[in-house]
């Protein structure tokens, strides 16, 4: 029987049957035509067939194949050994390039096929076996070589596809520029290249905007494997003689008809380096190094320049470099580089659009919230706002502080359901409605009632919660109403923290439910904390547990400093939040009640009679003498006379006159006539119409506010500087 060598594919085991001694000897004899084993290749035990060709898609294709330690995968810094996290042994392994494969050869030399099994020893007494004559080249040998070449091509194609799948997914993870470029660097080094340089336009174009400014590229990120010692102890530099090419960190201004501009407009990756047709473009990119970068980059096809072309325009370029001891790039590697560059450019476009949306969302949120809190006499304010997460920069939470007549201030915190542009738009409309209603000096329950009606007009699917209160520094009282909002926490001057039990009411937008107000004392030194449910509620904690935790936090803060400062108190409250507690956005408003002492307030009721202006002047003169403000007596009496005269002319009920001494001297005159006074240009023969011109000329500020019971006209005067104490 003629001996025939059995051909074994990677997916076939040995066929059953008897083999001749000649065939066994032929299988055991090494084939001189077989290729030498690949350096650094570690065959998988039990795997037969030819090894996979070196395609540069794993660390074994790099320095490890030449006797240097292999890097199992990229990480955040040079020489890192991170894991991909999607397979059992990481996305890039030390002995096979890709996890789950384990059989990439090292230097482009195919591994020797597995030897056939050795024949068993002949039994005792059997006749000796004579060697069969060695056959010459046959047609079967050519078929076997073709099959091996087809297997190698198939394995190389499969490796490229798996590598591109891993790399593109890693690049696509990023939402901003840093994450996208980091994904490219981690996917490229050391699996595909030994170094990568990412250049982006500065500034990056956004959307469809067009500019006539010259195109400028700036190096945004680099990554490389560290220099490793050679077998003789010397170093194998990546970029000799310097760590970075000259001018790599300098901005590159593109010449309109230059070689680099032509390369980028072409849109296809090309080989760079010494002797390449595109060496001039590479020299322009790296800083116009003369003479085609002699000795600056590895020789041969070890440099790829890949343009980054986004959806509409070129956004940059990527430089991929291999060491001199690693196999050069092939034509197939240009296709891989093209895919990497395409996905990176699309990721850059996505990051730019995401950054623009984030900027718009931040600007919208800032516009919806007060830019600064008013400085009201008798109360100090502090606030905080935190969005829910980076992906939800806008929300429906808001806070506000609205000055009211009589040095009062309205405090409001609300929450519209949702974290979208729609929620922010509804929140802005409700906040504007609250400001308008507060200007009418309506009671808190009336404000919530009209706010509920406005929310129903905006749509039945818009639900919000709100708490609204008015603080009067003269009477030291606080009137509040609640519409389905978490209860405020009140910190007493003695350090006790309690929850204000307000009638809960229905949320804004439900309709048909009345609201109630509650009046509570607000002594000097007390602190009120208004907040949204994002501060006290999360997936792991209900609202009332969070409220109790907040109350304990305030009580603990008051034990250290009494009363605690508002800004540190807000930070202390937010510090109790953990990473798992940021499920919702948070609005926080803290108010410290100082009040106005009774000795700085004077208040009278006057009948609307002809003698009332004169009486008002006498009352004001006495109070100013008691306050040692005689220098303001003449001007204040004149202004009071003009305003009171106007009130007496239109009022049908007793008018009110109040003087307040704070940082300024404030005078308020109220009556039951709803018509607001306005300055008019009096003719030469008119007897009236000049009083408000006099008020506007002599007063520091003045104004008129419509109330639910009429109106109030007020003016302010600057207090004289205090004389220094002679002692």
TrEMBL record:
Residues 172-358 form the GAF domain. Signal peptide: none annotated. Residues 1-15, 74-87 have a biased composition (Basic and acidic residues). Pfam families: GAF, HATPase_c_2, SpoIIE. Residues 1-95, 109-153 are annotated as: Disordered. It comes from the Bacteria. SMART domains: GAF (SM00065), PP2C_SIG (SM00331). Residues 27-38, 50-73, 109-124 have a biased composition (Low complexity). Residues 125-136 have a biased composition (Pro residues). Residues 379-593 form the PPM-type phosphatase domain. Keywords: Hydrolase. This is SpoIIE family protein phosphatase. It comes from Streptomyces thermolineatus.
């Amino acid at each position: 029987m003629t001996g025939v060598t059995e051909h074994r594919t990677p997916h076939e085991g040995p066929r059953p049957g008897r083999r001749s001694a000649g065939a066994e000897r032929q299988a055991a004899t090494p084939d001189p035509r077989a290729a030498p084993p690949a350096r650094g290749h570690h065959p998988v035990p039990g795997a037969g067939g030819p090894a996979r060709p070196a395609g540069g898609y794993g660390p074994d294709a790099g320095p490890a194949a030449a006797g240097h330690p292999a890097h199992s995968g990229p990480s955040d810094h040079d020489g890192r050994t991170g894991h991909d996290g999607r397979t059992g042994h990481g996305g890039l392994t030390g002995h096979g390039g890709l996890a789950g494969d384990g059989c990439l050869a090292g230097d482009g030399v195919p591994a020797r096929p597995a030897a056939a099994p050795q024949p068993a020893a002949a039994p005792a007494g059997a006749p000796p076996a004579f060697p069969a004559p060695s056959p010459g080249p046959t047609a079967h040998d050519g078929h076997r070589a073709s099959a091996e070449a087809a297997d190698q091509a198939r394995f190389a194609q499969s490796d490229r596809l798996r590598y591109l799948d891993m790399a593109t997914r890693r690049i696509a993870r990023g939402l901003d520029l840093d994450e996208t470029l980091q994904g490219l660097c981690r996917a490229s080094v050391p699996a595909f290249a030994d170094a990568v340089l990412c250049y982006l336009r500065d500034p990056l174009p956004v959307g469809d905007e067009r500019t006539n400014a010259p195109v400028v590229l700036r190096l945004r990120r680099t990554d490389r494997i560290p220099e490793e010692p050679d077998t003789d102890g010397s170093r194998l530099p990546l970029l000799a003689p310097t760590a970075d090419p000259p001018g790599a960190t300098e901005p590159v201004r593109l010449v309109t008809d230059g070689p680099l501009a032509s390369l980028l407009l072409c849109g296809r990756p090309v080989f760079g380096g010494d002797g390449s047709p595109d060496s001039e473009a590479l020299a322009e990119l790296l800083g116009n190094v003369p003479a085609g970068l002699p000795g600056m980059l590895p020789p041969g096809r070890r440099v790829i320049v890949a343009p980054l072309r986004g959806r509409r325009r070129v956004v940059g370029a990527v430089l991929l470099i291999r060491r001199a001891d690693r196999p050069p790039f092939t034509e197939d590697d240009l296709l891989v580089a093209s895919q990497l560059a395409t996905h990176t450019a699309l990721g850059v476009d996505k990051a730019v659009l995401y950054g623009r949306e984030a900027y718009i969302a931040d600007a919208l949120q800032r516009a919806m919230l007060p830019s600064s809190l008013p400085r009201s006499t008798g109360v100090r304010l502090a606030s905080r706002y935190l969005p829910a997460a980076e992906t939800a920069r806008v929300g429906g939470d808001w806070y506000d502080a609205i000055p009211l007549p009589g040095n009062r201030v309205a405090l409001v915190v609300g929450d519209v359901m949702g974290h979208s542009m729609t929620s922010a738009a509804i929140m802005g409309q409700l906040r504007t409605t609250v400001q308008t209603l507060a200007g009418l000096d309506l009671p808190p329950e009336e404000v919530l009632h009209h706010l509920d009606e406005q929310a129903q007009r905006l749509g039945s699917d818009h639900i919000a919660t709100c708490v609204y209160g008015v603080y009067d520094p003269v009477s030291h009282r606080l009137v509040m109403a609640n519409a389905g909002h978490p209860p405020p926490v009140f910190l007493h001057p003695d350090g006790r923290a309690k929850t204000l039990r307000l009638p809960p009411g229905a949320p804004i937008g439900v309709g048909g439910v009345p609201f109630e107000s509650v009046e509570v004392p607000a002594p000097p030194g007390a602190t009120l904390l208004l907040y949204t449910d994002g501060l006290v509620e999360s997936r792991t904690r209900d609202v009332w547990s969070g409220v109790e935790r907040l109350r304990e936090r305030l009580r603990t803060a008051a034990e250290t400093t009494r009363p605690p400062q508002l800004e540190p108190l807000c930070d202390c409250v937010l510090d109790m939040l953990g990473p798992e507690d940021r499920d919702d956005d948070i609005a926080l408003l803290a108010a410290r009640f100082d009040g106005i002492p009774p000795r700085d307030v004077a208040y009278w009721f006057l009948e609307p009679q002809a003698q009332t202006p004169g009486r008002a002047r006498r009352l004001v003169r006495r109070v100013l003498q008691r306050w040692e403000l005689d220098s303001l007596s003449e001007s204040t009496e004149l202004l009071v006379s003009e305003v009171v005269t106007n009130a007496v002319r239109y009022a049908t009920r007793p008018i009110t006159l109040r003087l307040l001494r704070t940082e300024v001297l404030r005078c308020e005159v109220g009556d039951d006539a709803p018509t607001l006074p306005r300055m008019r240009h009096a003719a030469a023969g008119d007897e009236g119409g000049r009083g408000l011109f006099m008020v506007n000329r002599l007063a520091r500020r003045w104004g008129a506010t419509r109330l639910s019971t009429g109106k109030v006209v007020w003016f302010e005067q600057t207090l004289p500087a205090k004389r220094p104490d002679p002692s």
